[in-house]
Specification:
- By secondary structure, the protein is mostly beta strands.
- The longest helix is centred in the N-terminal third of the chain and has 12 residues.
- It contains 4 helices and 20 strands.
Length: 339
């Protein structure tokens, strides 16, 4: 699938993957939906735009017109996100007339979480109650005092224990733009010949899967879920296997890989520098307004390869570790495959 082909073809691929007849028949579709939505089917085959505005989220509206609008972060704000048991909690922070403008986007398993009591607390300060700014949206202005090193978001709501999520802040706010770094990381990703991805994906407490992905450009991939399904995809052919069963072959549209997980980029900021597995890296955060997900990526300063990624989205909490890169990799049809 070339980068110029329409998105509708990609969406058809997505639906085919999610509705795999073999998976449906054997009751394993839930795991495959989670895994594939988190890797192959959340990304389009075309390049993203690191300068995309949050307003682009209108193109990814909820399935029903009556569903509440997604609480996207304000333009240019620093964005961070954490998992809070069953909730995805995004924080947007920016300066406004000497004060700190804070927004919490709180997303439940099915839609933005409404009717919560949310407050913010800076180190050494008092809790600042937030006001509702829409479904799952809570805002407040706080006095930052000296340079704030973190923000605590306290959440109270019916039917769940009280919780607090702490977000470390970068050394400077506003943080430097990282749009160019994200664009370079994406270009590097798409130029890879092979890639291995060690993936941990959760939808909440007690629901976690571990998957090993292998990609070989341009149209070959495999995945194996620990104690779960596995698949081989080569061009327009794929083979699926559930535990205790044989391989089943079928047809599909080709899926271009390796490609980044995100579709579009807004609010890209540099959080700082770090070392990851002995390599100097840039730590970068951004929001994807197309799939409504928050990302933190660690990009190798020397190679521009993304070494690690964390994604927080509705019922999707992901941690991926990448490598090796461009090592010899052989993806072939499985033996004794039916069809």
């Amino acid at each position: 699938m070339s980068v110029s082909e329409p998105r509708t073809q990609h969406r058809n691929v997505q639906l085919w993957l999610v509705l795999s007849p073999v998976a449906l028949a054997l009751g394993a579709v839930a795991w495959i939906v989670v895994a594939l939505l988190a890797r192959s089917t959340l990304s389009t085959s075309g390049p993203s735009s690191a300068g995309a505005a949050p307003a682009a989220a209108a193109t990814a509206a909820s399935p029903t017109s009556s569903a509440p609008a997604f609480p996207v972060p304000p333009a240019s704000a620093l964005v961070l996100a954490r998992e809070d048991r069953d909730l995805a909690v995004g924080l947007a922070a920016s300066r406004r007339d000497g004060r700190l403008a804070l927004q919490a986007s709180v997303i439940g398993q099915e839609q933005p979480a409404q009717g919560l009591s949310v407050s913010f607390r800076l180190p050494g300060g008092n809790a600042v109650p937030a006001e509702s700014c829409g479904a799952g949206c809570y805002r407040a202005l706080a006095d930052p005092g000296s340079r704030p090193r973190s923000v605590e978001v306290a959440i109270r709501g019916p039917g769940r224990p009280d919780s607090t999520v702490t977000f470390p802040l970068p050394a400077s706010l506003p943080a430097p733009s990282a749009a160019a770094l994200v664009s370079r990381a994406e270009t590097t990703w798409r130029a890879l010949r092979t890639l291995v991805d060690h993936d941990r994906l959760s939808s909440g407490p007690g629901n976690t899967i571990h998957t090993l992905w292998r990609f070989q450009a341009p149209y070959r991939l495999t995945y194996r879920i620990t104690n779960g399904p596995e698949a081989v995809v080569i061009g327009a052919r794929r083979w699926d296997k559930l535990p205790g069963h044989g391989w089943q072959g079928s047809e599909q549209d080709p899926i271009r890989q390796p490609i980044p997980l995100w579709e579009a980029v807004s609010n890209a900021h540099l959080l700082g520098s770090a070392r990851l597995r002995g390599r100097p890296v840039w730590e970068i955060s951004f929001f994807d307004p197309q799939i409504h997900a928050w990302f933190t990526i660690w990009v190798d300063k020397a190679t521009a390869r993304t070494l690690e990624l964390r994604m927080v989205a509705q019922a999707h909490f992901m941690h991926q570790v990448y490598g090796p890169f461009n090592r010899p990799l052989r993806i072939v049809p499985p033996t004794k495959a039916a069809g």
